[in-house]
Design brief:
There is one protein chain. The protein is α+β, with helices and mostly antiparallel strands. It has one domain: Aminopeptidase. The protein is built from four helices and nine strands. The protein has a seven-stranded mixed β-sheet with strand order 1-4-5-6-7-9-8, covered by helices on one side. Strands 2-3 form a two-stranded antiparallel sheet. The chain is globular and about 40 Å long.
Length: 170
């Protein structure tokens, strides 16, 4: 028997989704502005995938997850990954969706940046085959010049200083 509370659907983002994605990002990231490796992106304008309870139509289904990404030079960077409900496979399903899309587009490498305080993300991605790539020491000093809202202290009151690159070859 399937628990209806855990049934969800994944679908690509569409132009009509931009407003609710902006609200989602404001709620979960405090801004639609993202900074990765010294570059600014606006998350609500990026391609991505969303997870919904029940219906795939955001008007009737509840958004429970979001992944945004950017493709450049045979690489696909995951910029955001959020799951409202932990432990039921939403994050993994969103990650699988972007991997599948990247492979179909001929992309050879999927990668992302997280910060040194984000132990949950480091564990999550490594369990899904990602490897540690580079550590960019003190990168958050420069990132805060582009996005001053980035806090000084992160998870577990760890000072946020470094960007950590994780990757998987496809």
């Amino acid at each position: 028997m399937t628990d209806e509370a855990t049934v969800f659907h994944i679908r690509p983002l569409h132009d009509k989704d931009r407003n609710w994605v902006a609200h989602f990002m404001d709620e979960h990231w405090r801004s639609t502005k993202l900074v990765s490796r010294g570059r600014v992106f606006y998350g609500h304008l990026l391609p991505g995938f969303a997870a919904f309870h029940g219906s795939t139509d955001h008007c009737t289904g509840k958004a429970i997850g979001l992944l945004t990404y950017h493709v450049e030079n045979q690489g696909c960077e995951v910029l955001t990954l959020d799951s409202i409900e932990q432990g039921i496979g939403i994050g993994s399903a969103l990650l699988d969706a972007v991997k599948t899309a990247a492979i179909h587009a001929g992309i050879k490498r999927l990668w992302l940046i997280t910060t040194n305080d984000n132990l949950h993300a480091l564990r999550f991605y490594q369990k899904r085959g990602f490897r540690l790539g580079h550590i960019y020491h003190n990168a958050l000093e420069e990132a805060r010049k582009l996005k001053p809202q980035i806090p000084i202290l992160g998870f577990h009151q760890i000072p946020i200083r470094d960007e950590i690159e994780l990757y998987v070859n496809l």
